[in-house]
Every structure is written in structure tokens, then in C-alpha cells.
Specification:
Elements (H helix, E strand, L loop, with lengths): L53 H12 L3 H7 L4 H9 L1 H38 L5 H40 L3 H4 L2
Helix pairs in contact: 1-2, 1-4, 4-5
Length: 181
């Protein structure tokens, strides 16, 4: 294997033999410059976080996965002071809330998808006569609690719908102040 010194290598690891004219080979820009300064016209269009720059978006993604602001800033190659400044900005706070809400919604969907298997497991434990009594009692308690909670939520939803309709109907009525000439 041929080893070449740095002097023999041109920019980008190419050698003088690969680039006989000895002109500098342009390098692509670094993806995120030091400090993560906000640059004009740097927004990512077409996303919910469209008001954020790509660097802010990268920090936001890191913030959702890391345990601390400092770790998220380090992962996204961003200065900690810049990260704290962004966290004070209303646009960033709104995007952060929306991203957290989206993440929670995804987790809830995954729980709902697994709930049928969970119910089947609880029913199997409940039906096993050789299972310990505490396991059967715990399974029965979870099934009953979940059924009652689901019924309460359905009733609350119906009541809320009735209240919303009543408010809409009331708002549709003319106000007495508007009727006076």
C-alpha cells in the first residue's frame, strides 16, 4: 500500500497525480458552522417547523431525544448559549410544543395498537385456573378499571358534544343590543 504525506495530498485527500493542474479542489461547506448562528433565508419550507432554520430544527430534534439541553446542543453542534436563546423565542417554543405533542400522539397510537394484545393477555391470565390467584385478581382489576374508564370517557364525550351544540345554538341567537335601533 502506498502511503503519501500530507504535502503530496491535495485538498479532499486527492494527490497531485489525481489533480495535475494543482488547482485547489473546492470542498462542500460544513453542514453546521460553529455556533449555529441563524442565517437569513435559511428556513425549511413545507414543514410544521417551517419558521425554524435547519440548525434550529436539528437542535429541536436533538432536544426531543436527549436528556438535557446541554446534550441536545452538543449533539446538534450548537453553542449552549444559542440553545438557551432559542428556547426563549416564541416560534421555537411553539415548534417544540408541537413536536412534543406529535411524539405523544405517536406513542398513544402505538399503545392503542397494542391494547388488543394486552386485553387478550389479561383474558388468558384470567381464564387460567392454574394461574396464581393474585395474577387472576390483578388481571380482573385491570380489565374492570379499563372498562369503567372507557365508559366514563365515552359519557364525557357525549356530554361535551351536547354542551358544544348548546353553545353554538346560543351564539346563533340575536343579541338584545343588536336589535335596538
Amino acid at each position: 500500500m502506498l502511503v503519501r504525506s500530507p504535502a503530496e495530498r491535495g485538498k479532499g485527500g486527492q494527490t497531485a497525480r489525481d489533480n495535475p493542474s494543482h488547482t485547489p479542489i473546492p470542498q462542500p461547506p460544513a453542514p453546521f458552522p460553529k455556533g449555529c448562528q441563524k442565517m437569513p433565508n435559511d428556513a425549511t419550507p413545507g414543514t410544521e417547523r417551517g419558521a425554524l432554520t435547519p440548525r434550529q430544527d436539528q437542535f429541536l430534534s436533538a432536544l426531543l431525544t436527549e436528556n438535557s439541553i446541554a446534550a441536545a446542543a452538543k449533539l446538534s453542534n450548537c453553542a449552549i448559549r444559542t440553545a438557551h436563546r432559542w428556547l426563549k423565542e416564541a416560534e421555537f417554543q411553539e415548534a417544540y410544543r408541537a413536536a412534543r405533542k406529535e411524539g405523544l400522539s405517536r406513542a398513544t397510537s402505538r399503545l392503542q395498537a397494542a391494547s388488543a394484545d394486552a386485553v387478550d393477555t389479561l383474558r388468558a391470565i384470567l381464564a387460567q385456573p392454574d394461574a396464581p390467584a393474585y395474577s387472576r385478581v390483578a388481571a380482573a382489576r385491570v380489565i374492570l378499571d379499563s372498562a369503567l374508564r372507557a365508559q366514563e370517557l365515552e359519557e364525557l364525550e357525549v356530554r361535551l358534544q351536547h354542551l358544544e351544540r348548546a353553545v353554538e345554538a346560543r351564539e346563533a341567537l340575536p343579541h338584545p343590543e343588536e336589535a335596538l335601533p
